[in-house]
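Researcher: Here's a chain I'd like modeled. Treat it as a single chain, no partners, no ligands.
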Amino acid sequence: MSTETRRLAPEEWPVWREIRLRSLADSPDAFGSTFAREQAFTEDDWLMRMESMPVVVFVDGTPAALGGAFRVEDRVAQIVAMWTAPEFRRRGLARLVLDDVVGQARAEGLRVRLDVTRGNVAARTTYERYGFVPTGEVEPLREGSDLLVDLMVLPD
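Model: Modeled as a single isolated chain. Structure tokens:
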């Protein structure tokens, strides 16, 4: 099994679209967005999403895991879109994505945070093992959702 972690270039937006839509279809309760919303995105929308420092882990050439980060306020990066395809889980791919995304954010002097849906034990465990800690802040997953997310931060 060969593994390659790669930050996608803007012209690779179709790769990002493919795996992002797959993640939304597979795990709809893990994201603040929805499959229907993003399926309707135009090429310009996807190109704008490429500003999120998108990282994809490829296993034998197949997109297997993804994640990215946006600057959400001065000196803070919000990790988004973390997901690993079911057939590739428990192989450490999320850590590879986090290593790249966190490394880039830290190189730019940014603090790092993320949201995790309550009840998503696998994701929370991954983030805690990486060093993220809960802040106690809670908010809805998205407008109209009864699901809640906990804000976690990576200490400096």
